[in-house]
């Protein structure tokens, strides 16, 4: 069954931020949130975690960017 598109909420972004700080990989975050891994990669870029440094991801920055 194909996944439906899901718009991330601020609470989702806070969850991503927490999981990034706990050292989770994008694939693990995607599986836990039931979204495609590309959604997580785009979200990490939006939240300032470019260049592979997930510790820099900010849910607040990502929320302001949309």
Structure description:
There is one protein chain. This protein has 66 residues and is mostly helical. It has one domain (10-65). It has helices at residues 10-21, 26-33, 37-46, 59-65. Helix 1 (10-21) packs antiparallel against helix 4 (59-65). It starts with 9 loop residues before the first helix and ends with a helix. The model has no long low-confidence stretch (mean pLDDT 86). Residues 45-66 are annotated as: Disordered.
What's the short story on this structure?
The chain has 66 residues and is mainly α. Helix content is 56%, strand content 0%. It has one domain (10-65).
Portion in strands: under 5%
Low-confidence region ranges: none
Give the overall shape.
globular
The tally of strands reads: 0
Distance between the termini: 29 Å
How large is the count of helical segments?
Answer: 4
Radius of gyration: 11 Å
Layout of helices and strands:
Layout: H1 10-21, H2 26-33, H3 37-46, H4 59-65
Helix pairs in contact: 1-4, 2-3
Organism: Faecalicatena faecalis
Pfam families: HTH_38
Region (Disordered): 45-66
